[in-house]
Amino acid sequence: MLYPSCLRRLLVLVSLLGSLAACAPTPPPTYRIGFSQSVSAGDWREAMLAGMKREVSFHPEIQFLTRDAQGNSRQQQQQVHDLLDAGADVLVVAPNEEHALSSAIEEAYRRGVPVILLDRHTTSPHYAAYVGGDNAGVGAAAARYAALRLQQRGRIVEILGSPSSVSAERHRGFAQALRAYPEIRVVGEVVGDWGATSLQPALSRLLQTYPETDLIFAHSDLMAQGAYEVCRRLGRKDIRIIGVDGLPGPGNGMEMVQQGRATASLFYSPGGEEAIRVALKILHHQAYERENILGTIVIDSVNVLTLQQQATKVASQQAGIEQQQQLLRTLQATYTNQRTALYGLLATLLAAVVLGASAWRAARSNRRINRELARQNEANDVINRELVRQNEANDVINRQLSTQNEEIRAQRNQIAELAEQARVETEAKLRFFTNFSHELRTPLTLIMGPVEEMLTGPHGAALLPSHRHDLGLVRRNTQRLLQLVNQLLDFRKIEVGKMAVQAREDDLVAFVRELVETFEPAARVQQVALLFQPAVPQLPGWLDRNVLDKVFFNLLSNALKYTPAGGQITVRVWPADDGQALQVEVADTGRGIRPQDSPHIFEWFYQGEQPATAKGSGMGLALAQGLVRLHQGNLTFSSQLGQGSTFIVTLPCELPAELRTTAALPEALALDEPRALPIEDLTAETAAGQEPLVLVIEDNADVNEFVARKLQPHFRVQTAADGSTGLQLAKDLIPDLIVCDVMMPGLSGLEVVAQLRADWRTSHVPVILLTARTAPEQQVEGVQAGADVYLTKPFNPTFLLESIHTLLANRARQHEHTRRQLGAAAQATPDAAAPDPNPDQAFLQALTAQIESDLTRTDLTVEELAQALGFSRTQLYRKVKAVLGTSVTDYIQLVRLRKARELLLNDKLTITAVAYEVGYTSHSYFSNSFKARYQVSPSEFRARHLADSA
Ligand code: ADP
């Protein structure tokens, strides 16, 4: 395995080797020497270039760039720019013309590239160096050599090159030097073009003109060759010829001298090597001459062989050098290849070494790890054995634990069972306790009723004072007992969450004022001043009177209870919390609350220190607080022992929708608006000559008897001891009114009412429900089931009588109303097409439809009609009487005559036909009946109606 650390090491090594290879000897930085040549043709020019190349070949670091303008100055100018752009570090320029290249040289100067002028100057002063021959010196050397050969006397012809500074200088030097030899005379000048032929005609003519000519000086060897050919043609082999250039090689100056075609040639160096040498000095920042004038030597028969040999030697040496250089390059390439291969090998070797080392180390550490693993395995075995042993021990413990858990679970279940049992028992006790409280209310009602009756009834005034006092005592204590029982029931309701708030929009000031007023007599008796101080005349808010009544009642009773004579109770009402809340304060100047009682007074059944006179239960404040919280408010207090106590109730003005009700108060409904019957009635009387029949359904025999006794002086009374008996009796007798208890075994009062309402025979009978249940929602339940009035026990018997009278009177009023309606118009007929959900309405629809279906039958009996509707004859009789206030036969006649009126409007039917149609066999009986009901005879009715419509 190759460890990551080894791999890293290997990588480092390889990169090190790479950089070693990179550090191998590399050529020094390359210089570029650019050479711009005006023209490359011609031996002299070739010699110039060859000289440069030769010199450059000694310097491998030099890159040599050449350009040939082929005699075109403009092109040369462009080429100088090209060389500058190609990155030349030094420029060697051999100008074509003095003027043409100046701007190019200026440009090089601007770019900081030094320029070496070769052979010719330009007009620009911004050149770095000049290398070139001394043309005047060449001219002078030619003159001195001519004088020597002519022994200072003779005739000379000069052949000038095409006009240029070169030819001018050579001519000047030549002429000047000849002045030293007065006996030498230049007889003529010929201007050539540096070539061999153009001069020949003019020279030929001149030689013929001056046959005494001894010597010709041509400015170049080539022109000297031309002159030689002219002289040969003229047979003037005696004329000496001197040329300029003296180059080696075939056809050049040296060969001409050696073969005798020229007497001498003046060596004029092309300066290639020298120019490169100066360039190198500049590149290497060495000192150099700015003006490098090259000297000349005379080549003649004396030294020509030596010079030729030297030139050949140089040429062959040059060839050798080039060969060696070629060899060197080959060797260098081989060397580079081998070096690369070597480094590669080295790297591979090193990598192998490193890998080997790593492998060796890995193997060694593997061995160590294996040994360690083996050791650990042994240890693990020991541990495992230990674990197995411990597991076994754990199993034993677990088994013990699970046994214990089992026991604990069993115990817990037992406890849970016991708790559940306790809960069930407690619940049963509480239920018993609640039911028991309910039960207490019935006997209390039975005590309260007669006592109230004795004290306030018509015989009250006749009571002996001692009896009146005793009865008062009975009444007060009964009231107190009732209050306690009610509080207990409320407590239970709050406990089981059954107490619901049903708030209405109300005025708190008016409500509290009413309550305070009820306490005024008691306060007067106790000689306590009771003040009511509302901060505003009205304070609207959402209030549940039923709930708050109990709260303020308790606070006021406490204040009265704990304030001795001479004290004062002040009740204040004001808006709080920026109008968001309402506050009621009950402040007394009584005994105050002891600090040790303060934390507990809101606890159920807690009683603080009691004065001897006070009778308490410890429920009042707990109940008050529970109720205030239900009403989303809070109850606070402050007290100072011996100074008095202040209780403050804070209530929100607004209550959430679920705590609001828009239903009217059931009491108001019961007392002021007995349920109106939906159908018109005709008479107020019940069965002729008889008192109305009242059915009392009450399971408590005492209450039943008590109520019956109270009602007997005024009504016929029937009693039933339970719901189903009562229901049956109601159906049989069709009473005028039913008084029914709510809480009964078997059928409850609410169920009795519901069944009464569902049956056509009894649906019209008014019902007064009696109950010990006070909750408003139960009263609503009763009213919803169809009760007309809901009375709470203990009820005042006088009030019960009043309620019965009111209901019956209402019924009479309804009959009156219906009679007028029915008598007046046909629309009083219930509309059979739209069945009414109201049972009485439905009954009337069915009855009317039944009569109308048998209208032509003259012998339709009440029995038949009752049977068709599922009634007995008496039931139908009482039902129709109760609903319509009339007899069945009367109603049958009403239906017949109403139909007759309709038919009379059709004048195609005779009166007799109409009578027959509506079940009358006798025309006169029909007419009499019609007139009796509508005060007009059928014929008059028809005549009047037809007149009206006409
Ligand atoms: P109780 O039926 O005993 O009055 P409450 O729950 O109404 O029960 O009150 C609890 C206790 O708080 C009372 O026993 C009494 O010690 C104390 N208390 C309540 N209201 C007052 C008050 N206005 N002045 C002095 N003490 C009061």
Q: How would you sum up this structure, described in words?
A:
- This protein has five domains: 97 residues, Response regulator (Rossmann fold); 170 residues, Rossmann fold; 156 residues, Heat Shock Protein 90; 146 residues, Response regulator (Rossmann fold, 3-Layer(aba) Sandwich); 122 residues, Homeodomain-like (Arc Repressor Mutant, subunit A, Orthogonal Bundle).
- 55% of the residues lie in helices and 14% in strands.
- The protein has 28 helices and 24 strands.
- Helix 7 crosses helix 8, helix 13 runs parallel beside helix 14 and helix 14 runs antiparallel to helix 15.
- 34% of the residues are buried.
- About 4% of the residues have low confidence.
- It binds adenosine-5'-diphosphate (ADP).
- The site of adenosine-5'-diphosphate (ADP) has 22 residues, from helix 14 and helix 15.
Q: Provide the CATH top-level class of the largest domain.
A: Alpha Beta
Morphology call: elongated
Based on DSSP secondary structure assignment, what is the total number of beta strands? 24
Detail the poorly predicted runs: 665-689, 824-836
Q: Any guess at the CATH architecture of the largest domain?
A: 3-Layer(aba) Sandwich
* Class based on secondary structure composition and strand pairing: alpha/beta
CATH superfamily of the largest domain: Response regulator
Estimate what percentage of residues fall within beta strands. 5-15%
Gyration radius from CA atoms, angstroms: 76 Å
Mean pLDDT across the residues is 84
Catalytic activity: ATP + protein L-histidine = ADP + protein N-phospho-L-histidine
EC number: 2.7.13.3
Keywords: Coiled coil, DNA-binding, Phosphoprotein, Signal, Transcription, Transcription regulation
Protein name: histidine kinase
